[in-house]
Design goal:
The two termini are about 40 Å apart. The chain has three helices and three strands. It is elongated and about 65 Å long. It is α+β, with helices and mostly antiparallel strands. The relative contact order is 0.13.
Amino acid sequence: MEKILVKQFTGNPENFLKQVAAGKTFIILDGGKIIAKLVPPDYSTIAAREKLEQLQKTAVVGDVLSPIETEFVSN
């Protein structure tokens, strides 16, 4: 995680955004204080949401609240 000044970011935002897209994280400072954090997108969350949307098309939810006769055994 690299710290940069807001002036550095505003001088060349495309460069920093390309680096973020490639996986790098930046902390942006203004007057010595953190004002922002640039982080890559969390594609795992997006992939999980897409998978759930696909499952929603075919999934059938039955009674998930009533007790069952089978005893659960954990390892």
